[in-house]
Amino acid sequence: MIKAGIIGGAGYTGGELIRLLINHPDVEIAYVNSSSNAGNYVYEVHTDLFGDTDLRFTSEVSTDIDVIFLCVAHGDAKKFLAANPMPSSVKIVDLSQDFRIKGTSPEGTGFVYGLPEINKQAIQTATQIANPGCFATCLQLGLLPLAANGLLTDELHITGVTGSTGAGQKPTTSTHFSWRSNNLSVYKAFEHQHLKEITQSVVQLQPDYKHSINFIPYRGDFARGIIANIHTKFSGTEEEAVELYQKFYAGQPFTHVSTQNIDLKQVVNTNKCLVHVEKHGEYLLVMSIIDNLLKGASGQAVQNMNLMFGIPETAGLKLKPVAF
């Protein structure tokens, strides 16, 4: 059994990770760290886990584990690892943004960007993974087949709507139910932090890409999920685009190309990404949807762990969507 430690287990991503790992056939959770909740039962914070586990939060950190997940705020992963050096035998999966951009890893370490659809071989031999961001995952999976074929020849126009859980568990003005319900708002227009990840992966596959990526994110009035629409100039036909996407994602267990329109209820509570493409005049419209807490965070973290330990990529991740 793989012994796992979780740091920052009281937040949304920590809760989802615990839910996945207590049902994983090859994993035993050694501890769940949360200084503010030390001694409390996990189910007292993550009430959906009542009856599923008797784990308690702890303030202790042990290195007697095989893998550690860092479900901490951005900037805190670097601080944690500086204060708690992990032996080389412990694999690390960081869910913050601290190590996602090349050149940000501390000297002597080498975090691999954990998007399996383009970095699977590197992930399989890695000891440290920088788990991608939620918007970054959704948008990249919509773009990468075009980049891999050198077909991004113009600027990209993107809109994306995310659920309130994307903002984290701590309540804020823009996550309060009375403000978010029946409401919609733009934030971080053209400046979202995940643009650096998206650009990095696009250039990885299409080094000559120099155009703008124009991204307008929206706060949605729902709890979880991301739906993104991308349009850009494309000289081929719709049939050619569908074939290109299907070929790129052939053999990928969680990313699927749909020939029908897609909606969030198809992916919420799953580790799936669904992609749909349409041709409109000279433009290709690409739709991409994920659950921001699973394929956009904890589910992908488990997918990466599976690859690192050489067990089936889908282990512990055969989840069913909530249809109603």
TrEMBL record:
GO cellular component, one term: cytoplasm
Transmembrane spans: none
CDD domains, per the entry: AGPR_1_C, AGPR_1_N
Enzyme Commission number(s) of this protein: 1.2.1.38
GO terms of biological process kind: L-arginine biosynthetic process
Keyword Disulfide bond appears in the UniProt entry: no
Functional pathway: Amino-acid biosynthesis; L-arginine biosynthesis; N(2)-acetyl-L-ornithine from L-glutamate: step 3/4
InterPro entries given in the database record: AGPR (IPR050085), AGPR_AS (IPR023013), AGPR_dimerisation_dom (IPR058924), AGPR_type-1 (IPR000706), NAD(P)-bd_dom_sf (IPR036291), Semialdehyde_DH_NAD-bd (IPR000534)
Keywords: Amino-acid biosynthesis, Arginine biosynthesis, Cytoplasm, NADP, Oxidoreductase
Cellular location(s): Cytoplasm
Keyword Ion transport listed: no
Catalysed reactions, semicolon-separated: N-acetyl-L-glutamate 5-semialdehyde + phosphate + NADP(+) = N-acetyl-L-glutamyl 5-phosphate + NADPH + H(+)
Main location, first listed in the record: cytoplasm
Active site feature: C134
GO MF entry, a single one: NAD binding
Enzyme class, broadest EC rank: oxidoreductase
Semialdehyde dehydrogenase NAD-binding domain boundaries: 3-126
SUPFAM superfamilies from the UniProt entry: Glyceraldehyde-3-phosphate dehydrogenase-like, C-terminal domain (SSF55347), NAD(P)-binding Rossmann-fold domains (SSF51735)
Domain of life: Bacteria
Pfam families in the record: Semialdhyde_dh, Semialdhyde_dhC_1
Similarity comment: family membership: Belongs to the NAGSA dehydrogenase family. Type 1 subfamily.
Protein task: Catalyzes the NADPH-dependent reduction of N-acetyl-5-glutamyl phosphate to yield N-acetyl-L-glutamate 5-semialdehyde.
HAMAP family reported for this sequence: ArgC_type1
PANTHER family noted in UniProt: N-ACETYL-GAMMA-GLUTAMYL-PHOSPHATE REDUCTASE, CHLOROPLASTIC-RELATED (PTHR32338:SF10), N-ACETYL-GAMMA-GLUTAMYL-PHOSPHATE REDUCTASE, CHLOROPLASTIC-RELATED-RELATED (PTHR32338)
Name listed for the protein in its UniProt record: N-acetyl-gamma-glutamyl-phosphate reductase
Organism: Acetobacteroides hydrogenigenes
Taxonomic classification: Bacteria, Pseudomonadati, Bacteroidota, Bacteroidia, Bacteroidales
